[in-house]
Amino acid sequence: MNSTALDNTTSIATPPGLLDESTGELKPVVDVTLKWQLQSVARLALGAKHRLGICYRHTRPDWSEVQIRGSEDRRAYYAGLMTCGSVWACPVCAAKIQSVRASEVRRAIDLWTAQGGSVLLLTLTVPHTRQDDLGALLSRFNDAYRRFTSGAPMKRLKAAHGLSGHVKALEVTWSEVNGWHPHAHVLLFIAPGGDTYDLDTHLWQRWQSATTRTGFGSLSLRGFNLQDGSAVRNYVTKMGREYLWGAEHELVKAHTKRGRAGRSFTPFDFLRAYLVVPDDGRLLYLFAEFAHTFKGRNQLVWSRGFKALLLGSDGLTDEQVAASVGEDDPVLAHITLAEWALIRRHDLRAEVLLIVQQFGYTGLECLLAELRAPP
């Protein structure tokens, strides 16, 4: 699969220009405030009643303060705030959830290949037009995928080729010419000694049959791609720097990365574009259409029992991941409810994290004193 996409999920990062002491490589340059800006745009698109309105803004009912804690990798983060847990709609929660999901997929790949197995990456797409409604298009795509993966012929195919499990991720992009474009990336885990000869031909025939039966018409080979999972490590550009894009990122960070410049948009591209063109209400409409359509859907789906088999359990839900706090992480700053109201009023959530990370509680006190000072 050719990928010119960018992952733009941000975190509280080390200032640009510093070297990673463990690898000697230059650390990536990122805008650490961007995900908070994008969250504000998403809240505008989805309206005040959406649960995004409380995310990292209101305190949890069981907390009497807001804390800033420091993780092992020296990132500062908030504890004691309510979260929405939406991997689709919330840039802040998505960053946290995707980090955990990418780690899980990476561990699964490593464990499987250490046992002598192999991993393939399958990409499935369908024909679409500018006139297609996203909800109807996605429903038909999911119907085609169900037909593709079910039935006795597929069971025989799995047995013949040693296909032991899979992990599927949904992705959607949008372009001015062709409209919404849903597709899926699927990691196929092949058992040690599994015979992959002609697997691509058999899978292509099944996908072609499934899409035809669900009304998509003739499907070209561009709607199907199968490649070695280890080959899905393409160099892409991230904020002007090159880094390795692995199969686990292709699966879990699809809707937050950048589309092909001038040709297609990922959903979070709508939010990024609105920061540049705040008068374009269509960007908010398209993001809202995406968020409402994908609400309640799983971004990542493991074949039944496969995640627990490899990793020991099914792990936390997205909501649990978003709300999780490192119990052993040190508290860098305590923020009273009155102080938090002041920070919220001036929309300085990202800046406060940066200040505490770099200057500690003293830096926060200086900021609060400036905010309290009369104009």
Report what the structure shows.
- With 375 residues, the protein is α+β, with helices and mostly antiparallel strands.
- The protein has one domain (6-372).
- 41% of the residues lie in helices and 18% in strands.
- It contains twelve helices and twelve strands.
- The strands form four sheets. The chain has a five-stranded antiparallel beta sheet.
- Helix 1 (34-46) packs across helix 7 (267-276), helix 3 (134-149) packs across helix 5 (199-213) and helix 7 packs antiparallel against helix 8 (281-294).
- It is globular and about 70 Å long.
- The termini are far apart.
Q: How are the elements arranged and paired?
A:
Layout: E1 6-7, H1 34-46, E2 66-70, E3 76-79, H2 91-114, E4 118-125, H3 134-149, H4 152-161, E5 163-175, E6 179-190, H5 199-213, E7 224-228, E8 234-238, E9 241-245, H6 247-252, E10 257-258, H7 267-276, H8 281-294, E11 300-302, H9 306-311, H10 318-323, E12 331-335, H11 337-345, H12 349-372
Antiparallel strand pairs: 1-10, 2-3, 2-12, 4-6, 4-7, 5-6, 5-11, 8-9
Helix pairs in contact: 1-7, 1-8, 3-5, 7-8, 11-12
User: What oligomeric state is this?
Assistant: single chain
Measured by DSSP, the beta-strand proportion falls in 15-25%
- Overall 3D shape: globular
Q: Which structural class should the secondary elements be placed in?
A: alpha+beta
Low-pLDDT runs of 5+ residues are 1-20, 24-29, 231-248
Helix count, DSSP H or I runs of 4 or more residues: 12
Gyration radius, rounded: 22 Å
Largest sheet: 5 strands, antiparallel
Q: What is the chain-wise order of helices and strands? A: EHEEHEHHEEHEEEHEHHEHHEHH
Helix content: 40-55%
Total domain units:
1
How far apart are the termini? 56 Å
